[in-house]
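pinned: reference chain
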Amino acid sequence: MCNLYRMTKTVSEVAGWFEVVNEAAGANFGDEVYPGYPGIVVAEGRVRQMAWGFPVVLKGKQGQPLKPKPVNNARDDKLLTGFWRDSFVKRRCLIPVSQWAEAEGEPGSKTRTWYQLAGHELFAVAGLWRPTAEWGHAYTMVMSDACSQMADVHDRMPVILTADQWDLWQHGSPDEALALARTCDLELHVERTDERWAGTAKSAQKTLL
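pinned: its structure tokens
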């Protein structure tokens, strides 16, 4: 599961890295990205700004609509179920990531442990996207079983895609894409910190051009 990640490259750097059109010049998002806040994805040959998480509208005790909740992770074994199926079949994307974080430690004193693909300042995570009435275009991150390097912290992790898999994930058949939604067997760099897990998303927001 991932509820926080870093994307520290500029939009122009991301466009160059993935060799796509920069449609997000002037995008306003944080280098630490939280559910419900904007981030960038690579979709349809372009870098695009979207909101992280598919909105789900909940209802209160009296039936009144409540603020939408962002569903920011999609399990690999649920991709063909009702909530995700249409986006998985029709709208797969790449999520540029520098590191993702997991909470580690005792309840009430958990700290941030950061993971990244070893030797890479930027890598791609499998994603889905769709238009929404609430937040415009939104995306979610695909998760698989955790690898041995992080299984003691969490049982799920993002699906990391190597450069030779980018096109197949975006444009291949559902069966071909589903075969890529698997546990990463590449080396991860692990950075354990004393940063408290709890934090405010707003304080991390800044503009990346």
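why pinned: The longest strand covers residues 123-132. Residues 202-209 have pLDDT under 50 and may be disordered.
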